[in-house]
Design brief:
Elements lengths: L6 E4 L4 E8 L8 H11 L2 H4 L6 E6 L7 E6 L4 E4 L6 H18 L8 E4 L1
Parallel strand pairs: 2-3
Antiparallel strand pairs: 1-6, 2-4, 4-5
């Protein structure tokens, strides 16, 4: 980690559903990132920003690739593969897309919590 820590604000506003899946026996990168992201979005403070957002975790035993799938309120779905993207890049992209969508609808963003990474 660098001397300066960066912060990421997390909100579930504008998000309808988050689906996470991973194989715990996967030897490759990405499994830990899915678990870390689950811990961040399932915290009570973040859940307060949108109690209607469903966060689903699926633990598989088929050596499948870990993934994070975000379904927005406007039915757009984005899927991220932590094997090829870092968690900070995934979170940054979700953050930017969410802010853009909320700005288009003139909704004030309510951040549940700020994380340092």
């Amino acid at each position: 980690m660098t001397a300066r820590s960066r912060s990421m604000q997390i909100t579930l506003q504008g998000i309808k559903q988050i689906n996470l899946s991973f194989c715990p026996f996967d030897r490759y990168a990405g499994t830990g990132e899915v678990r870390k992201y689950y811990n961040k979005v399932s915290s009570p403070i973040v859940k307060k920003s949108n109690p209607d957002c469903a966060v689903n975790m699926k633990v598989l035993n088929d050596d499948s690739q870990p993934l994070i799938s975000v379904l927005y309120s406007d039915t757009e779905e984005r899927t991220y593969y932590p094997r090829t993207m870092s968690l900070s890049n995934i979170m940054r992209d979700i953050h930017l897309v969410t802010r853009r969508k909320l700005a288009e609808q003139d909704i004030v963003v309510d951040y549940g919590i700020t994380y340092r990474y």
